[in-house]
Structure formats: structure tokens, C-alpha cells
């Protein structure tokens, strides 16, 4: 097997919220093209890990590397520019903008024309607008949304909103995609569609994906590896088969009778 | 005159003005605490109170009763105005729209009250009869001391109300977590209405103290006063009752001292006309350094 | 392929035709007996109000960041341009044969640049806040600017070296003419349209809708917020410069109080937050209406405030919402093609986030 390139690396990431250690010693080596799942009971700190990886929170400990570059302390939009994109647990779309505009907004960082060209409509302005438009339509077509391009994002049905959010993340031309509970609130049909979507994305874009999910069937089906968090600590890491049989994981989800006070690590 | 005496006079003056600001700031803070809205119209409730006084004081005097009893009429009028504004405008907009619509509605209400009063009463100042005839104690006028004492009493009463009574606890509960308060059996809409009523009543008392000093009312009397009281509320910590009191006193003292001393301190470079700008500068500094105010605490946005 | 450009070129051509018609109308107006100083004054008022309201729509409407101190920038533009005109007169420039409107435009440009600079200085600290707090801090800055102008010697009395603090600025020569003012207004509006129909417009609308998601989409929100604010302050400066040169020859700080700011905010809201067309309509209507209904002058603000409350209750997006008038679409519609308009939102959504401090 060829040597896997490590794309995203987290070393001993941790964050303290005024005395409460929300995440402790989180480690991750995400290889190119991999799909890793991040699971754990509610409140385990999964979204907090995402927030750290994307720059929403600055970790109080540890380091994060993307293709060898340290991302600690960078702002959110800088980390996006470096190549990490995410979706949110509660879908965050630009509600009063059209579907097309939602995707095109993500091209902002890549569009090079400045104020001068904008106001004079000269130089490369139209070329860049046209190419952005074309790329946006391509992306939307992938998700079957191109016919709704002039529709306001807020008027889309839930499943399509989720797809639009993923399309927007893809528009940032990222190397790593963080999906936060993409299947939340979906029925089995929609979840199956989402699965197809994710597979399609992996084929077409060769991205590495880190996925938070509660839907265990989805997780077991598509994740190559799974990391389990509980109370901020990593309690298990391995293949789906290993995780399924892991006693600690089961206990974390179902609870243990004689759990001690204090650290669970 | 002895500079020390002058200083004390200005300080006491500041306490007087500050007590008025504190009462108004309390109204702002209580409403903000409960519905997260800066009631831009709050300053204009003072104007409503003032005009009520202007009309009811002669009635009181004619009836042989002490002039200041007219404040009861002012309190009732202001409270009713506050509740009406909440029920007819703020509440429906809050249900339907977003924060910006509520903000705009508050501004619109302020314009409505000011211009409505202008249409009804004209733009010229209107005299209010003498409210108090009090002896001077030492070098301090009776009205000044009364204002400070009255202010302190009201603040203490409010603290007791908010902390010790059932309604007060309800108010605090709603400002912490509306849903949880509902589950605990708190009548949220009624609590909000009462908060407005109490806040507006405080504005009425503030108008009494204002009129005791200046003896006249205009349609715009509430606007600058309201703005500065708002700065006071932010300074002390918006949403925090003791913060409003602290902020009010501080702003009052700063304003008073800056009016008296700024000219001499800076050699005439900055004149006392700047005292308004100084208050706003304080606002800006607070908002940039610690937006939650002296006694306030921050709540972030969940991602 | 280049469909967007073709459409835009068609639209631009049509717009040019429309503007030519407007100018022809202006020419007719100027020659006619209608062109009394009074009517001219109203036209000029329409012009600077249009520029003010459209410029305010950029941060308030398109970007959703509430600024209540916009007249502060107008004041900076007004006073700076007035002082530039005075300086030009003192330097003897009118005798060099430079046409009047050129001197006017120089004054406008300097005034606007100064206003833009102030916009930059105010926005960097102020935009760290949001919602109510941003409104109040911009109000504070607006008032501070006004008080400073009121109390500096160069901006009072005869101005510059002979100035006295605290007096209205007098003796401002008016080198402009109607064509320059109207032309300037059209150019400003066109520039603002161009700004909004670009990556900048998309970025600021995204910021309005969800700032956190904007960051996650790679948008440097601080940069775009400050930029939008600065651009809008620049145009407010243009409006101020036009105001200063409206012919009365005087300027006083009482024209730039926060009450005036709220009036402009009112116009933005009524016209539609996110629609430049709406801003133009409300600017024109609310400038002409008070003159047409002189009898009801005292009720003017009362009625506006009432309208505003009604608008918030029943149509919070304002008269035009986010709809923009397009000559191209209108003509296509008349010819039977379907214009490409997004549907209006089903209802105004409540904000999901519970707290914004």
C-alpha cells in the first residue's frame, strides 16, 4: 500500500473553559482521502473539537497542522483559505440570499478583482464573475440543486438545505471537510441520499472528511476509522468493527452503574 | 470661594444629576434585562411624566394639596404609557421579526412620542409650578438633598423588590431564561408588562426630580437625558440593577465635574460644551473595553 | 458563454438611455419657468438625500449592521468641502479660469475622502460590536464628531484662519450647477449599484444573514464590514458636500444631530433594507412630500414615525424589500419574457441565536 499522506494533524489539542476542561488531549492524523468518524454521547466535546480545528476557539493546549503548516491562532477565514471547511450542527445558510448566491459567496476569497475593477466593471471583472457563476452551477448540479438557483435558501426543504450547506463548503475548494451531524433531522430516505452524496464527494474531490454523527448506521457504513469522545477525552479509536465491540464505548453511551466521580480518562 | 467647597458643591450636584440618571438607567436596564431591547423611547417616558406634572400640579394646588402629590398621576400615566407601548408595538414586533425590527420600532416609538407631544403641546417650554418649598441646609439646596435622598430610597426599594418579592424573582427568572421561567409557572407576558410599568414609573419619579430643579418641560427634555442615562446603564452593566445605580451616579458626577473643571484643566482647549461629548466618549470606551459594563457579565453566542 | 456580461451590457445601455432622458428632462426644466430657486432647492435636496439614504442602506440594509451616526460622516463631508471651497477662493483659483463645477467637484472629492477616512476610523473599533450596541456606539461617534466640529475655530464663522468656534460657517460660495449635482447623484448611485452587484455585495449580504457562516465560507468579515462602512461613509461625505453647496452658503451643526440620523434610518427602513431602488423612492417621496403638504408640516415626523411602526408590524422588509428596479427586466416583462426574480421570503424569520452581546 502506498504511504498515506497526512493532511490534517491534531496533537494533544485541548481547551479549557474557565476551569472546565471541555476537550483533553485530542489527537488525530487524517490521511488524504480518508473518512474518519467522530462520535460520542451528547456533550462529549465533538463540536468543540470542530470549533478548535476551524479556528472558532483557540485551543489552550496542543497544536494543529494542515499539510505541515501550523494553524494555531489563525482566524476562521484564514483556516478556510488554508483548506479546512465545515458544516454546522444547526444548518447555517444565508437565508435571505438565493441558492446560487450562497455558493458564490464562498468564492469571495478566490475572486481577485478589487474595488477599482468592480466600480468600473473593467478588466477581469466579468471573466471572474462568469467563471464563478459556472463553477457554482457545476457544484449545484452535483447536488441536483441547479434548478433552484434563484430560490431563496430559506425556502428550500430541509434535506436540500443541508445539501446546499455542503455545496457551499465544497465551494471553498478545501482539502479537509468537517461535517457536523449532517444527517440530523433526516428520515431514512434523506439519510441514504446523504450517504450517496458523501460518496460522490469523496470520488470527485478527493477530500479528507471528518464526520460527527449520532446516526450509528451511517457511521458504521461509511467511516474507515472512528474516534470516540466522552467528557472531552478520547476513549477509543479504531475501525468500526473494533469500536462496535468496545466495552468502554458501550458504557459511555449507555452509562455505567458504578461510575466514579472525577476524571473519566 | 474656597476651591474645596466648590468641589464639594460640584460633587453634590453630580450626585443629584446622577440620581436622576440612575432612576432612568434603572428603567433601561430592567427592560433590557428582560427582553434584550434598548427601549429608545424610555427617555421620552420622562417627558410624558413631565407633561403630566405640568398639567396636574395646578390641579393639586387648586385642590389645596401639596404640589408634589401630582407625581402619583405622573407615575400612573407613565406606567400606562409604558405598558401600552410594549403591548401595542414591541410585543407584536418581537413575535414577528428580528432584533433589528425591534430596534427600529423602539426608535420609531421615541419619534412618535416626541412628535406627538410637539403636536399636542407645541415646541415651547411649559412651566411646572413650584413642586417643593424646602429650606436650604448649609450651602445645599433642599431640592438637591431631597433628590439624592429620594433617589437612594427608590433604589433600595427596587433592590428589595427585585430580590425579595415573588414578582421580582419572576423578573429575574424571565431575564435569565424565558422558557424555563414559563415552565416554573411564571406568567411571562404579565411579568414583562409589569417590568415596563415599574421602569416607566421610575421615569416618572425622575421627571419629578427633574422638574423640581428646572421647573419647566419641553418635548425634547427626555432625549439627551435618556441617552446619557443609557450610557450610565451600559457603564454600570446593562441588565444589572445595581449597575444602573452605580453608572447613573458616576455619569452624573463626571458630567458635573467636567462642566466645572474641564475648561480650567485643559487651559481652555476643551470647553465645557464638551461635557456631552465626554459622556459619549465614556460610552465608547466602555463598549470597547468591557461591553458588559462594570458589574456586568458576558454571554457569548453558541456556535 | 459571457451571458452575465451580455445581460449587463444590455442593461447598462438601457440605463444610459434612461439617464439621457433624465438629463433632457432636466434641461427642459432648467429652461422653463418652473426652475425657481425654490424648485431647484427641492431638486438639490432630493439629490443629497438620495445619496445619503442609498449610502446608508449599504451598512444598515445590505449588511444588517445598524449605524445610527451616519450624519456624522455627512457633517465631515460638508464641512471639509466647504472649507476646501473657501481655500480655493482664498487661493484665487476662480480667477484661473477653472470652471465652477470643477472646483465644486474637487471640494466634493476632498470632503468625501475625509468622510471615508472618518468612516474607517470609526468602523474599526465600532464594528467589534453588534446590534443594539453598534447602534449606540455609532450614535456616540456621530455626536462626538458633531460636538468637535461645533467647537473648533476653523469650522465656524468665516472659517479657516478667520474662523470662530461655535458659530455657523458662513460665506460658502456655490460653484456647482444643477447638472453637476444631478450628474454626481447619478454617478454615486451607479457606483453603489456596481458595488452591491459584485463579490462585495455578496459578502456583505452573507455577513447580514449569518456572520459565523460567512467566516466559515472564507469571508474575512472584519475586512468587509470595515470596507462597507468606509464606502458608505465616503458617499455620505459626497451627500454632505452637496448639502454644503446647496446655495444657502451656510452650515450649522444643528443640521447634523442624531435626530437627523434617525430620520435617514427611517427612510432606509421604509424604502426597503437591501433595495437601492427603495432608498431612492423613499428619499424622493420623503423629500417632496413635506413640501407638497406644507399644511401638515408639524405632523410630518409624527406621521413618519407612525408609518415606521406600521411597517415594522406588517412589512418589516420595507416597501421594496430586496427588490431592485431593472429597466431591462421591466422591458422584458412588457414584451412577455419572464424576469428572473427570486421569490419573496415566505415570512420574516426570527433570529435563532438568543443573545447578541
UniProtKB/TrEMBL annotation, chain B:
Location in the cell: Cell membrane
Keyword Cytoplasm attached: no
InterPro entries associated with the record: ABC_BtuC-like, ABC_transp_permease, BCAA_transport_permease
CDD domains for the chain: TM_PBP1_LivH_like
Key words of the record: Amino-acid transport, Cell inner membrane, Cell membrane, Membrane, Transmembrane, Transmembrane helix, Transport
GO BP, sorted A to Z: D-alanine transmembrane transport; L-alanine transport; L-isoleucine import across plasma membrane
Membrane-spanning segments: 20-38, 45-62, 68-90, 102-123, 143-162, 192-210, 230-253, 265-289
Membrane topology: Multi-pass membrane protein
GO cellular component, one term: plasma membrane
Pfam families xref list: BPD_transp_2 (PF02653)
GO molecular function, one term: L-leucine transmembrane transporter activity
Family in the record: Belongs to the binding-protein-dependent transport system permease family. LivHM subfamily.
PANTHER family to which the protein is assigned, alphabetical: BRANCHED-CHAIN AMINO ACID TRANSPORT SYSTEM PERMEASE PROTEIN LIVH, HIGH-AFFINITY BRANCHED-CHAIN AMINO ACID TRANSPORT SYSTEM PERMEASE PROTEIN LIVH
Protein name: High-affinity branched-chain amino acid transport system permease protein LivH
Amino acid at each position: 500500500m502506498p504511504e498515506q499522506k497526512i493532511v490534517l494533524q491534531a496533537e494533544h489539542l485541548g481547551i479549557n473553559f474557565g476551569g472546565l476542561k471541555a476537550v483533553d488531549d485530542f489527537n488525530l492524523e487524517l490521511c488524504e482521502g480518508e473518512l474518519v468518524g467522530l462520535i460520542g454521547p451528547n456533550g462529549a466535546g465533538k463540536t468543540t473539537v470542530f470549533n478548535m480545528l476551524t479556528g472558532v476557539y483557540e485551543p489552550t493546549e496542543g497544536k494543529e497542522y494542515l499539510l505541515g503548516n501550523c494553524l494555531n491562532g489563525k482566524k476562521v477565514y484564514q483556516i478556510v483559505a488554508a483548506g479546512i471547511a465545515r458544516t454546522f450542527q444547526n444548518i447555517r445558510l444565508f437565508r435571505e440570499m438565493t441558492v446560487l448566491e450562497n455558493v458564490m459567496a464562498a468564492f469571495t476569497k478566490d475572486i481577485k478583482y478589487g474595488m477599482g475593477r468592480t466600480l468600473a466593471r473593467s478588466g477581469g471583472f466579468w471573466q471572474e464573475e462568469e467563471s464563478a457563476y459556472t463553477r457554482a452551477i457545476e457544484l449545484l448540479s452535483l447536488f441536483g440543486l441547479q434548478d433552484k438557483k434563484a430560490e431563496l435558501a430559506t425556502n428550500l426543504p430541509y434535506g436540500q438545505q443541508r445539501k446546499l450547506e455542503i455545496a457551499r463548503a465544497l465551494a471553498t475548494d478545501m482539502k479537509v471537510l468537517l461535517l457536523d451531524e449532517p444527517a440530523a433531522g433526516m428520515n431514512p430516505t434523506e439519510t441514504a441520499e446523504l450517504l450517496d452524496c458523501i460518496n460522490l464527494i469523496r470520488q470527485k474531490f478527493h477530500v479528507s472528511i471528518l464526520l460527527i454523527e449520532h446516526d450509528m448506521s451511517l457511521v458504521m457504513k461509511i467511516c474507515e476509522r472512528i474516534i470516540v469522545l466522552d467528557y472531552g477525552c478520547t476513549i477509543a479509536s479504531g475501525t468500526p468493527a473494533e469500536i462496535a465491540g468496545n466495552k468502554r464505548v458501550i458504557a459511555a453511551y449507555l452509562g455505567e452503574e458504578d461510575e466514579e466521580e472525577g476524571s473519566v480518562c | 470661594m474656597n476651591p474645596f467647597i466648590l468641589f464639594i458643591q460640584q460633587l453634590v450636584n453630580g450626585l443629584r444629576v446622577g440620581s436622576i440618571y440612575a432612576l432612568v438607567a434603572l428603567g433601561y436596564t430592567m427592560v433590557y434585562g428582560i427582553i434584550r431591547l434598548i427601549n429608545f423611547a424610555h427617555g421620552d417616558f420622562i417627558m410624558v411624566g413631565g407633561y403630566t406634572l405640568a398639567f396636574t400640579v395646578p390641579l393639586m394646588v387648586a385642590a389645596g394639596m401639596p404640589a408634589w402629590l401630582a407625581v402619583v398621576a405622573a407615575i400612573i400615566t407613565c406606567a400606562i404609557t409604558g405598558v401600552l407601548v410594549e403591548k401595542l408595538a414591541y410585543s407584536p414586533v418581537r413575535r414577528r421579526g428580528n432584533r433589528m425590527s425591534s430596534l427600529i420600532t423602539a426608535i420609531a416609538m421615541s419619534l412618535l412620542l416626541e412628535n406627538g407631544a410637539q403636536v399636542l403641546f407645541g415646541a415651547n417650554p411649559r412651566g411646572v409650578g413650584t413642586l417643593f418649598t424646602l429650606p436650604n441646609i448649609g450651602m445645599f439646596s433642599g431640592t438637591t438633598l431631597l433628590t439624592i435622598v429620594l433617589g437612594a430610597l427608590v433604589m433600595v426599594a427596587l433592590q428589595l423588590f427585585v430580590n425579595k418579592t415573588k414578582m421580582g424573582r419572576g423578573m429575574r427568572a424571565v431575564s435569565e431564561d424565558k422558557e424555563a421561567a414559563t415552565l416554573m409557572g411564571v406568567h411571562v407576558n404579565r411579568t414583562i408588562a409589569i417590568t415596563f410599568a415599574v421602569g416607566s414609573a421610575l421615569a416618572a419619579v425622575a421627571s419629578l426630580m427633574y422638574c423640581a430643579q428646572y421647573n419647566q418641560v419641553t418635548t425634547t427634555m427626555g432625549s439627551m437625558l435618556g441617552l446619557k442615562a443609557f450610557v450610565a446603564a451600559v457603564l454600570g452593566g446593562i441588565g444589572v440593577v445595581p449597575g444602573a445605580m452605580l453608572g447613573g451616579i458616576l455619569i452624573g458626577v463626571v458630567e458635573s465635574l467636567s462642566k466645572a473643571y474641564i475648561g480650567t484643566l485643559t487651559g481652555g482647549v476643551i470647553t465645557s460644551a464638551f461635557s456631552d461629548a465626554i459622556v459619549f466618549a465614556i460610552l465608547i470606551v466602555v463598549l470597547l473595553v468591557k461591553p458588559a459594563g462594570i458589574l456586568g457579565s458576558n454571554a457569548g453566542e453558541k456556535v | 458563454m459571457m451571458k452575465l456580461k451580455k445581460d449587463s451590457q444590455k442593461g447598462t445601455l438601457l440605463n444610459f438611455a434612461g439617464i439621457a432622458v433624465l438629463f433632457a428632462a432636466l434641461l427642459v426644466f432648467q429652461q422653463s419657468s418652473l426652475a425657481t430657486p425654490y424648485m431647484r432647492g427641492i431638486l438639490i435636496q432630493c439629490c443629497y438625500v438620495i445619496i445619503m439614504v442609498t449610502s446608508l442602506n449599504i451598512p444598515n440594509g445590505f449588511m444588517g449592521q445598524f449605524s445610527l451616526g451616519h450624519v456624522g460622516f455627512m457633517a465631515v463631508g460638508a464641512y471639509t468641502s466647504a472649507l476646501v471651497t473657501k481655500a480655493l477662493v482664498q487661493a484665487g483659483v476662480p480667477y484661473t479660469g477653472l470652471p465652477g463645477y470643477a472646483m465644486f467637484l474637487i471640494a466634493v472629492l476632498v470632503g468625501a475622502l475625509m468622510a471615508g477616512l472618518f468612516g474607517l476610523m470609526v468602523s474599526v473599533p465600532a464594528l467589534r460590536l453588534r446590534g443594539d450596541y453598534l447602534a449606540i456606539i455609532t450614535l456616540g461617534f456621530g455626536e462626538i464628531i458633531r460636538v468637535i466640529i461645533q467647537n473648533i475655530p476653523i469650522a465656524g464663522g468665516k472659517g479657516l484662519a478667520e474662523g470662530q468656534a461655535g458659530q455657523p460657517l458662513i460665506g460658502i460660495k456655490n460653484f456647482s450647477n444643477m447638472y453637476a449635482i444631478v450628474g454626481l447623484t447619478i454617478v454615486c448611485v451607479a457606483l453603489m449599484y456596481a458595488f452591491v452587484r459584485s463579490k462585495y455585495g455578496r459578502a456583505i449580504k452573507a455577513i447580514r444573514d449569518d456572520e459565523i457562516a460567512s467566516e466559515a465560507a472564507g469571508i474575512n468579515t472584519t475586512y468587509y464590514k470595515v470596507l462597507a462602512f468606509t464606502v458608505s461613509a465616503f458617499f455620505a461625505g459626497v451627500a454632505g458636500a452637496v448639502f454644503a453647496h446647496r446655495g444657502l452658503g451656510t452650515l450649522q451643526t444643528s443640521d447634523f444631530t442624531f435626530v437627523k440620523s434617525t430620520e435617514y434610518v427611517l427612510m432606509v427602513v421604509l424604502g426597503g433594507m437591501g433595495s437601492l431602488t427603495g432608498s431612492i423612492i423613499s428619499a424622493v417621496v420623503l423629500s417632496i412630500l413635506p413640501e407638497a403638504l406644507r399644511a401638515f408640516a408639524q405632523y410630518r415626523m409624527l406621521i413618519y414615525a407612525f408609518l415606521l411602526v406600521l411597517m415594522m408590524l406588517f412589512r418589516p422588509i420595507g416597501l421594496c424589500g430586496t427588490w431592485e428596479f431593472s429597466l431591462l427586466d421591466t422591458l422584458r416583462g412588457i414584451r412577455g419574457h419572464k424576469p428572473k426574480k427570486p421569490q419573496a421570503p415566505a415570512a420574516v424569520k426570527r433570529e435563532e441565536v438568543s443573545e447578541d452581546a
